[in-house]
């Protein structure tokens, strides 16, 4: 919602706050998904088919989180090109 507001009424401080919150959010999501992937590995106990699905899903989830974290870091540290 804050990003939509910032699109229509640009504000530098709000832009910085949204970027910082995004970095914190996706850092936490990366830690959460890593722990979830580790726990699912232990819960599957060697079932190769299930581990193949779980690792593929976990890798995709972590990849999306890393891409979003990178984008928010770029916004946070990139500066304005106006």
Note down, in words, how this protein is organized.
With 82 residues, the chain is mainly α. The chain has one domain. It has helices at residues 2-8, 12-44, 48-78. Helix 2 (12-44) packs antiparallel against helix 3 (48-78).
Helical proportion, percent range: over 70%
> Strand count, sense and closure of the main sheet?
none
Distance between the termini: 24 Å
User: Unreliable stretches, pLDDT < 50, 5 or more residues?
Assistant: none
Structural class, judged by helices and strands?
Answer: mainly alpha
Summarize model confidence as the mean pLDDT: 87
- What are the secondary-structure elements, in order, as H or E? HHH
Computed Rg? 17 Å
Q: Kindly state the number of beta strands.
A: 0
Any idea what the shape is? elongated
Number of domains: 1
Strand content: under 5%
Helical element count? Answer: 3
Salient structural properties:
82 residues; mainly alpha; 3 helices
Summarize the structure.
By secondary structure, the chain is an all-alpha fold.
List the helices and strands and how they pair.
Layout: H1 2-8, H2 12-44, H3 48-78
